[in-house]
Specification:
The complex is a heterodimer of chains A (335) and B (347). By secondary structure, chain A is α/β, with parallel strands linked by helices. Chain A has 11 helices and 7 strands. The chains are: A alpha/beta (335), B alpha/beta (347). At the A-B interface, helix 5 and helix 6 of A face helix 3, helix 4, helix 5 and helix 10 of B.
């Protein structure tokens, strides 16, 4: 699928927005004392950008604990996301979810996730909805190399293949499940090879190269939309930071390795490819970066000026219909 | 006001009542689909003339595939984490999915989907999503099925905020509660008791809903309250008859719902009878029975003439050998001896 000028600028804007959100939002969240389970996706921007460029608001994605990039690429408002990270009531989840549960059903974003692999069957279910109701929508399940060893992924791939569901299993292999190297934890060198076991195509691409991701995702998504069933897309990528903000990754990997991947930074690779081609100037891309920086400034301000949840919100949204008194019966809670 | 005891209808079996509720709700709403292992059986062999080979492991889903087709009645591979997770995902995106977990003992393989996805999605997403998901499953010992096919683990589900659960005790409640569960916008776990499938009962032909979260009184009495859960309601009713012969009039409450638990109904009865025994086929530690006893003790202490008590299964897995299994399941004799000891010679 050929990218026009607008398409190129959109890809870069998505990646730059993710980069700026992470670089600004995560430390700001930490300064507000709420950073325990926030995971940066800096370095991995090409994957959500390249995949979600093919999706509309009606399509679905399920995401991971490292999911800010997926949210942004799927169209969730960064200002609302910032509010969610800050625990404010204006977040998409009213401050009840935080970084690991950001969801926006109006954008088909079925949630970032605190349990590794938990969102994979949800995406399969969304694809079942699409198929049953003949909606023509596809679902993408993002997951990491850690989740590749979870049983539910394998059950989900088998089920999706048996039922020919319009779902793409998109593995962001960043080389580490927390501190455990992929090559230690996986019996197989390429996760994409596991596709053969479920009779679906397996794509293996350079996840630092947004064009490679974009092209492979186009094939997988087209296959899903046309009713031919699921695919497995493995994107080899890298996270620049540790598992969480408290993790020093140099306790388990080398600075040479980090330098290598940073030399192949997805935004840098984009610039090196696109600027010499002449249709887009360096200045345009710099301006996108500046606009993203400004957008994050506004997002932080929006979040800081948003109201906190009411204390009574603790008890609501557990059910659609349930006696509210039951949430605290027997607890001796006063509010 | 819906009747909690049937006054009209015709006699059908518990399992037929389940089937009727499924059929009527699938007719009424095309967004309702059902999936599970062997719910039709022999899947994929339609070209050989094989359709509905099993009609469900206990024939509760028989005939559905003929009426609704294999796009709405889906036999699944044996992969509970995968298909129950998918059922929850589909339920949060516009379908109303019924999924069957063959025995509640199998919940271990899909527990993550139930407690981290189904139960928490609405809350952690800030109320953005309905999860109209019903999970049918089975409980009950007494069939020589041993430790992994016989448990009654509903208490574990009561413990989980975000889940609802019902324990129908007869054909009438089986249909009314299943209809309610399917129409509800929250995840509801529906516990069928294997020992009740062939029990006949009066069931109205038209669809009807019994309220989730409401217990019912099936026998009035003034001397003690017996609370039954699922099939244990029958044990309570029989015990009440025999107690009456020695001058003790027991009130029998059929719990029907394990989340929310209708504490108010029980406490109101205890305020009248001043004593309670909960009869529960689940194990005794951190159980619904222990929970009800603690709630009664906290909220009706001044009304009690005897300690809130329980008759439950022991804190063991379900055994195989008949002599041991018979000992495992609460029975009328244990209820009678418990009640007699509470009255301590006063009756």
């Amino acid at each position: 699928m050929e990218l026009n000028r607008e398409g190129l600028l959109n890809l870069y804007t998505t990646m730059s927005t993710i980069r700026h959100f992470e670089e600004r939002g995560i430390p700001e969240t930490g300064q507000r004392g709420m950073s325990a389970s926030v995971h940066s996706s800096v370095g991995q921007e090409a994957v959500p950008a390249g995949v979600c460029a093919h999706l509309t608001n009606d399509d679905y994605i399920g995401s991971t604990h490292r999911g800010h990039g997926h949210c942004i690429a799927k169209g969730v408002d960064p200002k609302k996301m910032m509010a969610e990270l800050f625990g404010r009531s204006t977040g998409p989840n009213k401050g009840k979810g935080g970084s690991m549960h950001i969801a926006d059903m109006t954008k088909g974003m079925l949630g970032t996730n605190g349990v590794v692999a938990a969102s994979i069957p949800l995406a399969v279910g969304a694809a079942l909805t699409s198929k049953t109701k003949k909606l023509g929508r596809v679902a993408v399940a993002f997951f990491g190399d850690g989740a590749a060893n979870q049983g539910v992924l394998h059950e989900s791939m088998n089920l999706a293949s048996v039922w020919k569901l319009p779902v793409i299993f998109c593995c962001e292999n960043n080389g580490y499940a927390e501190s455990t190297p992929f090559e230690y934890a996986s019996s197989i060198a390429a996760i994409s090879d596991r596709a053969a076991a479920y009779d679906m195509p397996g794509f293996n691409v350079d996840g630092m190269d947004v064009f490679a991701v974009y092209e492979a995702a186009a094939l997988a998504i087209e296959r899903a939309r046309s009713g031919e069933g699921p695919s497995l897309l493995e994107c080899k990528t890298y996270r620049y930071y540790g598992h969480t903000v408290f993790d020093n990754p140099l306790t388990y990997r080398s600075s040479e390795e980090e330098d290598y991947y940073k030399s192949r930074d997805p935004l840098k690779l984009f610039r090196e490819k696109v600027i010499p081609e002449g249709s887009i100037t360096e200045e345009e891309l710099n301006n996108i970066d500046l606009a993203c920086e400004q957008q994050m400034e506004e997002a932080v301000s929006y979040a800081d000026n948003s109201p906190l949840p009411e204390l009574n919100d603790l008890y609501t949204d557990v059910y659609d219909d349930y006696p509210l008194s039951m949430m605290k019966r027997g607890t001796n809670m006063s509010i | 006001m819906v009747e909690m005891i049937p006054t009209t209808g015709r006699e059908i079996l518990y399992r037929e009542a389940i089937n009727e509720a499924l059929r009527q709700e699938m007719r009424a709403d095309e967004n309702v689909i059902i999936m599970g292992e062997e719910i039709a059986g022999g899947a994929g062999r339609e070209h050989l003339g094989i359709v509905d080979a099993w009609g469900g492991p206990f024939r509760t889903t028989v005939g559905l595939i003929q009426e609704f087709g294999n796009e709405r009645v889906l036999d699944t591979p044996l992969s509970e984490a995968g298909f129950i997770g998918a059922a929850i995902g589909a339920s949060s995106t516009g379908l109303r999915v019924i999924a069957e977990l063959m025995f509640v003992d199998f919940m271990g393989v899909c527990w993550d989907q139930l407690i981290n996805n189904a139960a928490k999605m609405r809350y952690m997403f800030g109320g953005q999503v309905d999860v109209p998901f019903t999970m049918l499953t089975r409980i009950g010992a007494g069939f020589g099925s041993a430790a992994q096919h016989s448990a009654s683990y509903y208490s574990l589900f009561s413990h989980m905020p975000g889940l609802k659960g019902v324990v129908p005790s007869d054909a009438y409640t089986a249909k009314g509660l299943l209809t309610a569960a399917i129409r509800d916008n929250d995840p509801v776990i529906y516990f069928e008791h294997k020992g009740l499938y062939t029990e006949p009962g009066l069931v109205p032909e038209d669809p009807y809903v019994l309220p989730l979260g409401k217990a019912r009184t099936v026998r009035n009495g003034s001397d003690i309250t017996l609370v039954g859960i699922s099939k244990m309601t029958w044990v309570c009713t029989e015990a009440a008859k025999q107690l009456s012969e020695i001058g003790i009039e027991a009130e029998v409450i059929d719990l029907l719902s394990i989340s929310p638990i209708d504490y108010d109904h029980i406490i109101e009865s205890v305020k009248k009878t001043h004593a309670v025994v909960v009869v529960d086929e689940d194990t005794p530690v951190c159980s619904i029975a222990s929970d009800i006893c603690s709630r009664v003790a906290e909220e009706a202490f001044d009304y009690l003439d005897a300690p809130p008590s329980k008759v439950t299964a022991p804190h063991t897995p379900v055994p195989y050998s008949r002599i041991l299994e018979d000992q495992y399941v609460p029975n009328v004799e244990r209820v009678l001896s418990t009640v007699r000891s509470l009255f301590n010679g006063y009756r």
